[in-house]
Amino acid sequence: MARIAWVNLPNGKHVEIALTYIYWIWRETSNNILAKLSIEKTRKIETLSEDELDKVREEIKNYLVEWDLRRLISGNIKRLQEINCYRGIRHRKHLPVRGQNTKRNSRTRKWKAVAIANKKK
């Protein structure tokens, strides 16, 4: 099992797909990385040599991924909440931040609905 950017990549997957297990790396980014390193994207992750894995690790260091990016995003949200701007208040209340409707939609953004006892009569 290969370990790149603090993520264990699954053995049975192609390299192109396995790289997408890293936070903020999608298919296009993984294809660009593999093209730059001239590694075939249909190879399985377990067939890569340690030398090739080291090259991939060095290339991914050029990107902001995993916990560095998560820390940056959470820091930005905390900053918005501290300065009490509109977006920070919406984050704090667990409501949609970008102007979406909340009457009918946004079930995934709001907290879980609490059932009211004996409402149907």
Write the layout of secondary structure elements.
Blueprint: E1 2-4, E2 7-9, H1 15-18, H2 27-37, H3 50-60, H4 66-82, H5 86-92
Verbal overview:
This protein is mainly alpha-helical and 121 residues long. The chain folds into two domains: 2-60, Helicase, Ruva Protein, domain 3 (Orthogonal Bundle), CATH 1.10.8; 87-121, no CATH class. It has helices at residues 15-18, 27-37, 50-60, 66-82, 86-92, and strands spanning 2-4, 7-9. A two-stranded antiparallel ribbon has the order 1-2. Helix 4 (66-82) packs across helix 5 (86-92).
Uncertain ranges: none
Which CATH top level class of the largest domain fits? Mainly Alpha
SSE string: EEHHHHH
Structural class: mainly alpha
Percent strand equals under 5%
Topology, number of strands? 2
Helicity range = 40-55%
Q: Evaluate the radius of gyration.
A: 21 Å
What is the CATH topology descriptor of the largest domain?
Answer: Helicase, Ruva Protein, domain 3
Q: What strand line-up does the widest sheet have?
A: 1-2
Number of helices: 5
Write down the overall mean pLDDT.
Answer: 92
How many domains in all? 2
Task: State the separation between the terminal residues, measured CA to CA.
Answer: 58 Å
**Biggest beta-sheet profile:** 2 strands, antiparallel
What is the general shape?
Answer: elongated
The second-level CATH architecture of the largest domain is: Orthogonal Bundle
